[in-house]
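Form 12-C: Joint structure prediction
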Amino acid sequence: MNILELANLKKYFATQKAVDDISFQIGEGGIFGLLGPNGAGKTTLLRMITGIFYPDSGEITLRGRKFDPLNDSIHIGYMPEERGLYKKMKIGEQALYLARLKGLSKQDAMASIKKWFEKLEMETWWNKKVEDLSKGMSQKLQFVTTVLHEPKLIILDEPFSGLDPVNANLIKDEIFGLAKNGSTVIFSTHRMEQVEEICDHIVLVNKGKKILDGTVQQVKQDFKENIYRLGAKVLPEQLMTHIFEVVKHHPDHLLLRLKDDTQPNELLKYFISQGVNIQSFNEVLPSLNDIFIKLVEGTAATRQFQQVQ
Amino acid sequence: MNKIGLIIGREYFTRVKKKSFLVTTILVPLVIIGFYAAIIAISIKGSDEKQKIAVIDEGNLFTNFNDSLQNKFSFRLIKNETEQSFTKKYKDQGFDGFLYVPPFEIDKPVGFVLHSKSSASLATTSAVEKIINKAVRDKRLQAQGLDPKAYEKIAADVDLVNTVDSKDGSKKSVAAVAYIVSFACGILIYMMMIVYGTQVMRGVTEEKTNRIAEVMVSSVKPFQLMVGKIIGIGAVGLTQFAIWIILMFMLQMAIPLIFPGIMEQVSQAGVASQQAGNSMAVTAIQGISSLPLAKIAFSFIFYFLGGYLTYASMFAAIGSVVSEDQQEAQQLVFPVLMPIILGFVIMTKAINDPNSSLAVFGSLFPLTSPIVMMGRITYDIPGWQLALSMLLLIGCFLFFTWLAAKIYRTGILMYGKKPSWKEMLKWAFARS
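Section 2 - Result
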């Protein structure tokens, strides 16, 4: 069953079509990546899914029913890109307050806070104030307050920005853990290496429109360019052939693009026949970064303001 | 509903638990009470000291000093001294001051001088003036061939009592006290509306700049967040009032213990002379008890809440559209403060003339009514005016909350440029 379905979602502002007819489905469990350049409409899209904005048109279906922002907030945990906590409030009270606003009873909230604070070694923080925390620490706290009520759908907007590698790994492990326990994580970012590492399924938006939708493996297959890496020392005169072209020539390896009707085996046969000593051979799939740049490139780097009719 | 309760609780307790709340709530009235206690103490004590005043009578004005004021001053006639020569000596001879009476014409009594070590108090100069006036008058009476003693018998001294005929039987009005109570209520509402309104605005701006707003709005409706904040802070204001009323009550119990004389004077007040100073406190206590206290208290709380709620939602809307820059806030706040200040100005006029058309208008117009109506409250206001004013205020509060909530909802998630009034109006009237 799909936990979330978006159908023809639209949100226009005075000068921008922030989200212009986007539809996709997210299956239950797993980690979903929402990608896009700055100003693509990611945050607006997430704000509609969290019920902060109402869409101009289109439908959001959560767990098979029409999304009801008021009563469904218990099922959603949202960590916005711009982190925010009450600076003067004690950390324990703050966590309790935010959890109870989600609809948890006091006892449930306390139990959950205790569990998470122990897990992330934050027990001594209870009586401290947020203004006493470093940026990384408050990020951790923000993450905890997002997942305290064990939401079915967790939405994280740039969760690792500002975190050092150790704390980023800690949070990453928690995200994997949550996904394993049946939660669905929507993960919005423009850092592609994290997406490749974490996400199962991605959607790429640009200028308010969806331009890519699929699993990471599928997307990579779709955009592969028949490029192979050959680990061998090759002389330039040994490359005079029509079955491939050389993309790059390094002293110890080559990047080759095969012609469309050529099989990798033919290439290997050719080099063996040339008496080349092959050490390694593998296909090079494009990185998401390359795909991202390829798709977004050519469109203007920054969105222009326009009049919306 | 439960969520609004949580928000109210947070807003209320984080403020009430602050040390500064306790300090301002308890210290401010203590300072005021201490001030009054000092005034009362001084006015009671002040009458004990007798002033020694010498008189150089070159005009032959005085014949004797057997005067009613003898208990406050002791006068001594000095002979064989001039104004210049005695100026250097009177301090050494133990006088507080001396009065120089030059030779003068009876039709044109000028040139009297009171020399003193330190500047003479108003009470002293007016008492001395009274003595001179009486002496001059006696001289003139004699010149006309009249006996001053006979004149004394003829002269009339009438006390006028003003009785207000309200429905619940006639009451003596103590105009000065009514005036002061009206003014105090009006000014208190004025200050409270600004103080707590600004707190709402600052709270909203803080939520916005801390970026907690987005987290909150994913759990609760923006309207709930706004209303929760407004009610929470309003409750802080009511708590402050409650503490003040309790303190005041305690003070009333404590006054007789501190100043045992006062209560006797209150009971004797009818007979007591209308001298300045110590009788002021007596008149005040007498006057307060003659006012419709329950009606004043009810109206005060109603108009505080009505006025606060109306303005607080506007302050919240302004807080939601500004970002870090405090100057932006000040620019936007100005149009909201205008009617409050206007109300204050009308109130000062309404106290003097509570039934003028300006006062009636001001106390019906919902943006000024909380302040102006309190300025009229000690006077008898027609029931229909009170009812209409309250109704209009409630309607105004509902309208502004609805309007402000729409601006707030958009503003709280907007960063960057400050929106213009035109844009804000567009948000306010946009379909949801």
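Section 3 - Comments
The radius of gyration of chain A is 24 Å. Residues 165-180 of chain A form the longest helix (16 residues).
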